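Two proteins, back to back. First:
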Amino acid sequence: MNWSDVYKSKLVSADEAVQVIHSGDWVDYGSICGQVRSLDIALAARKDELEDVKIWSLLTLSPPKILEVDPTGDTFTWNVWHFSGLDRQMANQGLPAFYAPIRFSELPRYVRNHIEPLNVAMLQVAPMDKHGYFNLGPQNSHCRAVCERAQTVIVEVNTNQPRCLGGYHEAIHISEIDFVVEGSNNPLPSLPASPITSVDQQVAGYIMEELVDGSCIQLGIGSMPSAVGEMIAGSDLKDLGCHTEMLCDSHLKMFQAGKMNGRLKTTDPGRMAYTFALGSQELYNFIDDNPICASYPVDYINRPSLAALNDNLVTVNNAIEVDLYGQVCSESIGTRHISGTGGQLDFVIAGYESRGGKSFICLSSYFTGKNGDKKSRIVPTLTPGAVVTDPRSIAHFVVSEYGKFDLKGKTVWQRAEGLINLAHPDLRDELVACAKQQGIWRRSNKH
């Protein structure tokens, strides 16, 4: 079979491709670095021809043109499985951007079994290879599930998409595609490194005390996980592994420093396994056609029972606030949505289930309010309306710049004492008073 001829037979312009979209349709726009650009512009031009078109995406990194031309949502509604900073900004501006709650490891199943019928899938891919395959780039996640569920599949070719080796489900064949669009070849969106503060370094230092040679590392988004990666790169640790939802520049630095070879991993030994990559162009260059990296769907990477097969799995994620019972909120401030569950719950479970493993929830002890006063992130109860990301029965270690506390096996009064010790000293008396009022403070507790 001459796949080039098949390619040419399916090649159309972006304007032609989006003609398959009709009023009332559900359309997947691709996720993360695979969000479509040329097709987005073409669909935006059809705003006045359509109504009630619902879009799916995940972790938006480029402003969608369809919302620029339709800010009131008369035609298009933007729905995402995880809020990025841009998604949050769009929602705060009143644009029709909405969150769909998930446990990330379950997302391919949601797509296959639970969402409304998916009329069209549009996603960015790398150029077709000689065997007729388009690599999905650094966002394996749930892409295959999307393509399987969609009635029509359109790919937008971007020569800047790296070819990310599997694993599995990292590519789609020309025979499975309805239309090919040659895109505008935009550079991939980057994730600028968050400045690492002294608080981040203090938190990272407490986590470093728990690491051993051969630890398998998962890092979430944010400056505190990045600080852990920086410290590891400069440490004496060796033979570390990588099994992570997001492959980031910190993993690259650990590898370049000779700390991460994966030789002691149980799953994918010798390989850096991930479901999406997000960071610098240097990171995208590193994963391109690199056999040391393994791209997998999220129901493989984030499945707690599978991730936990790796001994000494260490998972590091952020939180917005933690209450005295050990409930962790990492995705909202009251009812104001900030982020999403993502894979945090998956990896909190996996870290504890791993032999020798640990999971860490990190946060600064306080933030500064509008009046310049200190506001504790260790709180008596979560802010009304706040989402519980990690239940009190699941969370393991909580870490602030004042130390770390292991919640497992602790009573409510032990939790209150241990967590108050992670709060800023100026705010502890008020927390003690609240603990007493809530009936979770024992007379013999330290004070």
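And the second protein:
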Amino acid sequence: MSDNVLKPKKYMREISSYVILMIGAIIAAFAVEEFLVPCTILDGGIVGISIMINNLKGISLGAVTLALNIPFLIVGMRKLGTAFIVKSAVAMTVFSSFLEVFAPLTDVTHEYLLAVCFGGVFLGVGVGLVIRSGGCLDGTETVAIFMNKKFNLPVGQTVLFINVVIYTVAGFLFGFNRAMYSLLTYFITSKVIDYVETGVEQAKAAMIITDEGQMIADEIFKKMGRTVTILEGEGLISGKKAVLYCVLNRFEIHELRHLIKEVDASAFITVSDVSEIIGNHIKKKADADTP
């Protein structure tokens, strides 16, 4: 397929990913402002901290959320890639703006159980769409991804640890009933994110069957800092193929899909869950460069 045909398709994919990303950010803002805030139920991460500040000081939730996220974007700019940071910045800006748009509207419910269940579901859908489109809504997620790349710490466990600290503080400030409601919301949100983003574990194993094995492996290493195991395979009809095996985290699946499509649009890809990793299987580029 010629470059003239591929470029419009690439641009349309990129535009559609931004549209989905912004829709996800709007849904997440609706969930926070219309379900969680009225009942003083906290989301995790920066949004949770912003809700606490909003309750204690009366400062605009959207403004606080955006202001607190900016430092994390600046820190992650060099470490996490331009595309990821740009999409995250767009998602965070849209999210913060629509927090202000939804603030004057009538709250959907003041029933705690309804707020936890429906707020968690809507928030999970929104955040899941943002992650699926290659961005994130919260600065703590960028910290977790950076820690994963730098120290091989699991993204999910890092985010959970940060959120447990936030919910503990919230318990002392607003009562432990609110903290427990917030924690329940977090678990519902996490499960819905997994369904939307397709995957229940942070670690994913990708198997790629292609005619361009070495080229794809080089691109994955160069652009994502991940090493690839290359095997020889033979299809019943298609003949000899290269089989690539790569382990990465769920935030990188979006980037992997697009990278492979650019090199070999006919490649066959499967992505599966990894329940446990023993040994240093997810490589860091810095480690690979070390003699």
